[in-house]
Inverse folding.
């Protein structure tokens, strides 16, 4: 599936897989991936733009979910030169159980449950220390700019 070896911890390699740049990158490493699943981790740093006091915000959790899902498309393309733009179309059934603190590491698991013609649905779980802290279903769209 990919030319990458896991875990991917090099920020420059992660940048090949998602369109985000600092300070908006919310993935510290990609732990594993298969055709329809990816697991990322994020160390929540004190300088994150998504902090509210010492808690990682709801918006940060959603953005981390979206970036984790985007990794699957990046891994599939393996940085092929055909440019694409990705869109977060919808967030459904969002449940945030608790907000992680600064210096915590969260693991985000994204499973693609549907894909057709650039449109994908994902089931997402966010964990901290083996405990579920958030979950949702995301729908994304990928636009090939060469069409």
């Amino acid at each position: 599936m990919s030319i990458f070896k896991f875990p991917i911890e090099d920020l420059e390699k992660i940048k090949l897989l998602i369109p985000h740049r600092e300070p908006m990158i919310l993935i510290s490493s990609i732990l594993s991936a298969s055709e329809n699943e990816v697991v990322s981790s994020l160390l929540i740093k004190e300088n994150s733009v998504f902090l509210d006091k010492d808690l990682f915000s709801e918006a940060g959790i959603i953005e981390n979910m979206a970036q984790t899902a985007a990794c699957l498309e990046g891994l599939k393309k393996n940085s092929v030169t055909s440019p694409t733009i990705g869109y977060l179309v919808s967030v459904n059934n969002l449940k945030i159980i608790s907000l992680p603190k600064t210096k915590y590491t969260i693991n985000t698991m994204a499973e693609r449950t549907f894909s057709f013609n650039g449109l994908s649905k994902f089931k997402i779980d966010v964990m901290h220390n083996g405990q579920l802290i958030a979950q949702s279903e995301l729908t994304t769209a990928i636009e090939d700019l060469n069409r």
About this structure: The radius of gyration is 14 Å. Residues 11-144 form a domain with the Thiol Ester Dehydrase; Chain A fold (CATH 3.10.129.10). The helical segments are 11-15, 58-77. The longest strand covers residues 131-144.
